[in-house]
Amino acid sequence: MKRFQIVGVGYCCVDVICMVEDFPVENSSTHITSRQTQGGGAVATALVAASRLGSRCAFIGNIGNDIISDEDVRLLEADGVCTDYMVRRPDCCGLESFVMVNPETGTRTKFPQRDYNPPITWDDNLRQVIKDATVLHLDGTHYENALSAARIAKEYGVLVSLDGCSMQKDNEKNRALATLADILIMNSKYPLRVGGKSNYNECLLEMSRWGNKKVIGCTLGEEGSKFLIDGKIVDFPAYKAPKVVDTTGCGDVFHGSFLSAYVSGMDIGTCIRFASATACIKCAVPGGRAGIPDRRTVLDMIKE
């Protein structure tokens, strides 16, 4: 048995979630009505979701010796994600993201701090962590880290999952990373920009030819998702939340719950419905992590 089912390399931060009275136009103001702090980051939140759903997870990344880095570690450990491979370096710092939530729609506008930390030094210990995983999950925000990690995973025959959300200006770099992904699930912007076709169906068909894809699809918010299954595009409707409080982290949670279902042996269609249900349940609570449910709650929802 592999030591870890899912190992992540990507963005990890502390989210400051602010509910605002309304969304102002530029060069005006509004009031913050409530404020709370949670863990954030695409890969980090995906790992929290997978861990809360019962998967064995670990995060690899550089952090500093500051208070934000301490909080990153504490929040991951609180949800059972192994942090033994988060490397403390004096030339690194913890990252923050400020999230403004529109109370009318539950949608959010993010202001994440760019990751200028130096790239990971891939010593034998960190390479072994990837080797000991079933799946490596990436988000591409720190391109050099993602590309190096993906190549190491390929060397050891470990599946590569990419959250297609963060794009480089040089589209050849995007294509290189996307080609290495065995599991490629993208947001609504990524396939149209990176795939270079005029619509989602054509992009999925085109990108499915890049490398050896086991799963390829894109999430479209309340419109659901599209996946290429057995050579055909299949549309999956989104579960409808009774009340959407905050969509922060929905995509990240979708990825983590999809991978948790995938490594547990569910078929692709069930993995997609499982992930959609998990993301839907999360929407009822502010922030990217607080509303992530346990496995039983999700299974009960998809049975209904």
Short description:
With 304 residues, the protein is α/β, with parallel strands linked by helices. Helices cover 35% and strands 26% of the residues.
Describe what this molecule looks like in 3D.
The strands form two sheets. Strands 5-4-1-8-9-10-11-12-13 form a nine-stranded mixed beta sheet, with helices on both faces. Strands 3-2-6-7 form a four-stranded mixed beta sheet. It is built from ten helices and 13 strands. The chain has helices at 42-52, 67-78, 124-131, 143-156, 171-180, 190-195, 200-207, 250-263, 268-282, 295-303, and strands at 4-9, 13-20, 32-40, 57-63, 82-88, 96-101, 108-112, 133-138, 159-164, 183-186, 215-219, 225-229, 232-236. 47% of the residues are buried. It has a single domain (4-303), classed as Ribokinase (UDP-N-acetylmuramoyl-L-alanine:D-glutamate ligase). Helix 5 links the parallel strand 9 and strand 10. It is of the alpha/beta class. Helix 4 runs parallel beside helix 5 (171-180).
Biggest sheet overview = 9 strands, mixed
Question: Which strand-content bin applies to the residues?
Answer: 25-35%
Backbone CA Rg: 18 Å
Number of DSSP E strands:
13
Helix-strand layout with pairing:
Elements: E1 4-9, E2 13-20, E3 32-40, H1 42-52, E4 57-63, H2 67-78, E5 82-88, E6 96-101, E7 108-112, H3 124-131, E8 133-138, H4 143-156, E9 159-164, H5 171-180, E10 183-186, H6 190-195, H7 200-207, E11 215-219, E12 225-229, E13 232-236, H8 250-263, H9 268-282, H10 295-303
Parallel strand pairs: 1-4, 1-8, 2-6, 4-5, 8-9, 9-10, 10-11
Antiparallel strand pairs: 2-3, 6-7, 11-12, 12-13
Helix pairs in contact: 1-8, 4-5, 8-9, 9-10
